[in-house]
Amino acid sequence: MAKIKTHYEDCDVLVVGGGMAGTGAAFEARHWGRDLKIICVEKANIDRSGAVAQGLYAINCYMGMQWNENQPEDHVRYARNDLMGLVREDLGYDMARHVDSTVHMFDEWGLPMMKNEKTGRYLREGKWQIMIHGESYKPIVAEAAKKSADKIYNRIMITHLLMDESSENRVGGAVGFNMRTGDFYVFRAKTVIVAAGGASHIFKPRAVGEGMGRTWYAPWSNGSAYALPIAVGAKMTQMENRIVLTRFKDGYGPVGAYFLHLKTYTQNANGENYEKKWYDQTKEIVGEYIDHHPVPTCLRNHAFIEETKAGGGPIQMVTTEAFADPHLEVIGWENFLGMTVGQAVVWASQDIDPKYTNPELTTSEPYVMGSHATCSGAWVSGPEDLSPPEYFWGYNRMLTVEGLFGAGDTVGGSAHKFSSGSFTEGRLAAKAAVKYIYDKKAENIKVTDKQCDDFKETIYKPLENYTVGRNEITGGTVSPSYILPIQGLQRLQKIMDEYVGGVGVNYMTNGNLLKRGLELLSILQEDLEHVGAEDYHQLMRAWELKHRALTSQCVAEHTMFREETRWPGYYYRGDHMKLDDDNWHCLTVSRRDPKTGKFTMEKAPVYHIVDEEKKKEAS
Ligand SMILES: Cc1cc2nc3c(=O)[nH]c(=O)nc-3n(C[C@H](O)[C@H](O)[C@H](O)COP(=O)(O)OP(=O)(O)OC[C@H]3O[C@@H](n4cnc5c(N)ncnc54)[C@H](O)[C@@H]3O)c2cc1C
Predict the structure, then answer these.
(1) pLDDT mean over 440-461
(2) DSSP alpha helices (H): ranges in 325-484?
(3) How many angstroms is it from 18 CA to the middle of ligand 1?
(4) Which atom number of ligand 1 is nearest to the Cα of residue 61?
(5) How does strand 236-237 pair with strand 586-592?
(6) Can you give the pTM of this predicted structure?
């Protein structure tokens, strides 16, 4: 341990994760806090990190308020409908009213936006999406963050949050290590904004063996956004609301541009519209929600899953008609080249030319995220002008730990933010964090050397476990004294798959399975004390696994608590196979006691802020 060098950095605003939300936070923190010290710490390199690393072909959240294309109220209605009624409308409205200004900045910063030749407006792909040539999206927002922050630290994984020792429940910074040099880093901070992305690879993926690592969601998103706040006792919400995506098979190539722009459609193996076949059965489960327009994403997944179970697969995307038009054919390919090159490679390797063959679709393994079509994440305060008392405790996007803020995938309850909305939420969180500092809420924070030294010992323990345990074996990877990160990861994924509703069981679980799954997860937690890391890269894998395991426990606890099937197509509670608005039209909120490791669960009310006034007038 003595060999490991320690670096100290004191700052005002610490941004953990330099993806979309993190770059937005760094940018906005500088705008409001000209004299503040702003640091951003990123596990990869912010030029190409996070879910947008490879680029995007569309900005999925743009209102177009200047042309009255949509207003924030419309977006709240849309997200509410897609999430079967359960969202934090205050957070969604707040993001939506600011998101256009974010997109206009991207335009000014040089992001190539496609324009509608007739109207001169941004070219719409769908009601909410506008099309971009987005290969350079991430370097462009990274440049804004680099110009704003005092320093960007790349290749440092944050493993723990520091807590103030002079008062209860206040954050004091974060610690982590450099994955290349192995050095230990202590960031003492007045406020911390967690923007560390979602969680992939907690459920067993469809792609195993030679395809291992291929997922829809970014493979390096390991749930730090959840594990860091959970570990210090911050409340979380809607963690059961995992997402399953219908995507092109094996490459997980996006379908949005295909459906919306190319007007392709799906069919079963017999060329039938299978969605209609499952209407009555779906209505039995969710009632009138199936009649909503647009049909909620999970319900379309549900028809896909049922049709496949009934032997109607493979489900295909009909591309042959659209690809007969040379212009649409180009768009179809460009869509992949700008953001998922791997799908084009998979098709080439499987002799699929979408001009002549309708490619197969699949439903993905579940992921946990708060910025895409689902809303798992931290329970945060909303803005003071919109939020009812239960949703407001002083500073916008502040978690239930003082001085700790969140944005993007970190924040729960506010789905459909996507890249632009996540950047926007980073801006909102940073503005509030700066105010928190100027309001003198972050005075006299005490972080002792002991707290930092204890973390140092904990963080590097997997290296020691390996070094000592390795002497007991002469070859191979199975040791009586340690497990390797990959072994622990595969065990975690198996538990989550079989007990918490993954692909192996057609997304089905129940109370008994969850109870057993939670027992197995707690045994895994014990064994993770003995994870062994051969080098600094494996040390990162070890900590990614620990963050995934904690996130998974929280997901399982929430899934156990909600005794209904609210989102068929995302997961099913076999013992409560119906949506139950009488008892479960509410948000679920958890807290893990940092001392005991036990979770407690509660219900929180859903306030329908948009349209509520009209309802009151009518009554
Ligand atoms: C496959 C896919 C397709 C998408 N398509 C679109 C689209 O077409 N249009 C659109 O608008 N949106 C799209 N999105 C959504 C968009 O990418 C996300 O909403 C957005 O990136 C979320 O922002 P974030 O900052 O929360 O997470 P991210 O952008 O993923 O950033 C998280 C960052 O945190 C870092 N990090 C993680 N853990 C740590 C740690 N412990 N310490 C330090 N750093 C850490 C990561 O390396 C990463 O840089 C897509 C997402 C995916 C996965």
Answers:
(1) 98
(2) 326-337, 341-349, 418-438, 449-470
(3) 9
(4) 11
(5) antiparallel
(6) 0.97
Amino acid residing at 458: T
Of residues 35, 45, 27, the one with CA closest to residue 11: 35
Q: CA 409 to CA 399: how far, in whole Å?
A: 13
* DSSP-derived 3-state class of residue 411: strand
Query: Count of alpha carbons within 13 Å of 448, Cβ hemisphere only?
Result: 6
Average pLDDT of span 228-233: 98
- Neighbour-count burial of 220, counting CB atoms closer than 10 A to its CB (0-12 exposed, 13-18 middle, 19+ buried): middle
Please list every protein residue whose CB sits less than 6 Å from any atom of ligand 1: 16-22, 41-44, 49-52, 56, 58-60, 157-158, 195-197, 216-218, 220-221, 224, 254, 371-372, 408-409, 418-420, 422
| 220 Cα–ligand 1 center, Å | 10
CA neighbours within 13 Å on the CB side: how many for 71? 3
Element (DSSP H or E) covering residue 604: strand 599-605
Q: Is the pLDDT of residue 617 over 70?
A: no
Residues 538-550, mean pLDDT to the nearest whole number: 98
Q: Which two tokens stand for residue 542?
A: 């070890």
Of 522, 533, 534, 469, the closest CA to residue 492 belongs to: 522
In this structure, the strands spanning 404-406 and 377-378 are: unpaired
- Residue 571 pLDDT greater than 90, yes or no: yes
- Distance between CA 86 and CA 603 in Å, rounded? 12
Closest Cα to atom 37, ligand 1: which residue?
196
> Contact 93/73 with Cβ under 8 angstroms?
yes
What are the structure tokens assigned to 595, written together? Answer: 């001392």
Tokens of 149: 């922050």
Confidence of residue 213 (pLDDT cuts 50, 70, 90): confident
User: Given this model, what pLDDT does residue 39 score?
Assistant: 98
- Give me ligand 1 centre to Cα 149, in Å: 19
